[in-house]
Amino acid sequence: MKEYQTITEVSGPLVYVETDEPIGYDEIVEIETPSGEVKRGQVLETAEEFVAIQVFEGTEGIGRDASVRFLGETLKLPVTEDLLGRVLDGSGNPIDGGPDIVPDERRSIVGAAINPTAREYPEEFIQTGISAIDGMNTLVRGQKLPIFSASGLPHSDLALQIARQATVPEDVAEEGEETEFAVVFAGMGITQEEANEFMDDFERTGALERSVVFLNLADDPAVERTVTPRMALTTAEYLAFEKDYHVLTILTDMTNYCEALREIGAAREEVPGRRGYPGYMYTDLAQLYERAGRLEGEDGSVTQIPILTMPGDDDTHPIPDLTGYITEGQIMLGRELNSQGVEPPIDVLPSLSRLMDDGIGEGITRADHSGVSDQLFASYAEGKDLRDLVNIVGREALDERDNKVLDFAEAFEQEFVDQGFHTDRTIEETLDQAWDVLSILPKTELSRIDEEHIEEYYGEESSDAEGGDTEEAEA
């Protein structure tokens, strides 16, 4: 262990120290103030004669008379299956009043890159209980599917609903007990009110028993935000690849994480990239997102749902833009749907799950799933276009067929998408609900669904009504 008392400068979250020998990058540091307080940090930059240290607990109280100890190892997290049911701060310290963690091992939070040849293709369905996701933007094991939100939209409620309801339906044991499924939840830069809401919901619903929660609050040091998602993903990898859990990792809010990167970059006087964010932000985000996946020969999996708020509702902003490049789709929340009271306000048209086709169908969800999803997209898109036309010419100018499409679009939003934040639908219930709204349309409009599925699932009441309309027209 090397110890120095050669601090030359304190700048924001950074401490600069003169050294007389090489110090390892990412090495963990302890800084002891004259009052005896010990703070942890990490080497951010190293040269022959100095190092730059980012301090996790903030630099308040650190002066030139403080002692700096280099521990000779990178930041490690104690991991064990007993982490399930525990609540930790952004640095991995328990804050739930429970006993100290007795680890099975200590793992570097940086993790190891997954060899592409060892990856197994994601193609197994995860049920979130949310129709707009399960039915039209299906999540599969090992996928990274972000949620793009905006200021004032209820992304926290959606995150809680997914954490509470997510399961792997085909892996339910015969006696009714679910197989190993866990949730790792990381809150970054959230308010104390949001943290209380998260914890109340986890405890009230019993979801905490199968969850590991990391909370970095808004008044915690920004530097801590850079290690919180890495702590969460290290825990997820341990549970998945050592204990064979299917782990769903929810990271909220990635915008706060990126703001912390920008703050540190400014303190280091780096040349900024787009909109002041570091030029290496793409690489940094990729290091997090690419830790999702499945490994050949391993039963467990790590699935990610990062949540980010788009500044100014701008989906071309660097954070959602880079996230979209790295991940396999996105779930978009819509401000217009939210103003109408739709819960959750998922705007399905700009949403996308690139791996959906491989995770649905006969033997996985249901044989009609793909056709139903395609038809919902096509008919809802046409209904949205007709709404624009109605604003110009009025609904009376439309023919009967177009009015049916408008009725479908209204029912789709109010009955299919709007299910509330506390309704958990199985995939069968989601598809049945889809058929209920599709049956508003004449059979002739269902051009994207196989005829055999139309005959099996098309609503009887709507079919009778259609027949009556036809008879009346003939008369």
How would you concisely characterize the structure shown here?
By secondary structure, the protein is of the alpha/beta class. The chain has helices spanning 131-134, 155-165, 192-205, 222-225, 228-241, 254-267, 281-289, 318-326, 335-339, 369-393, 400-417, 427-438, 451-457, 460-474, and strands at 2-4, 7-11, 14-18, 27-32, 38-46, 50-55, 67-74, 76-79, 87-89, 105-108, 125-126, 139-140, 147-149, 181-190, 211-217, 246-252, 293-294, 301-309, 329-333, 346-353. The protein is elongated.
Write the layout of secondary structure elements.
Blueprint: E1 2-4, E2 7-11, E3 14-18, E4 27-32, E5 38-46, E6 50-55, E7 67-74, E8 76-79, E9 87-89, E10 105-108, E11 125-126, H1 131-134, E12 139-140, E13 147-149, H2 155-165, E14 181-190, H3 192-205, E15 211-217, H4 222-225, H5 228-241, E16 246-252, H6 254-267, H7 281-289, E17 293-294, E18 301-309, H8 318-326, E19 329-333, H9 335-339, E20 346-353, H10 369-393, H11 400-417, H12 427-438, H13 451-457, H14 460-474
Parallel strand pairs: 9-15, 13-18, 13-19, 14-15, 14-16, 16-18
Antiparallel strand pairs: 1-7, 2-3, 3-6, 4-5, 4-7, 5-6, 8-10, 11-12, 17-18, 19-20
Overview of this structure, please?
The protein is α/β, with parallel strands linked by helices. The protein has helices at residues 131-134, 155-165, 192-205, 222-225, 228-241, 254-267, 281-289, 318-326, 335-339, 369-393, 400-417, 427-438, 451-457, 460-474, and strands spanning 2-4, 7-11, 14-18, 27-32, 38-46, 50-55, 67-74, 76-79, 87-89, 105-108, 125-126, 139-140, 147-149, 181-190, 211-217, 246-252, 293-294, 301-309, 329-333, 346-353. The strands form four sheets. Strands 9, 13, 14, 15, 16, 17, 18, 19 and 20 form a nine-stranded mixed β-sheet that branches. It is elongated and about 80 Å long. The N and C termini lie far apart (96 Å). Mean pLDDT is 89; it is low at 171-178, 461-468 and 470-475.
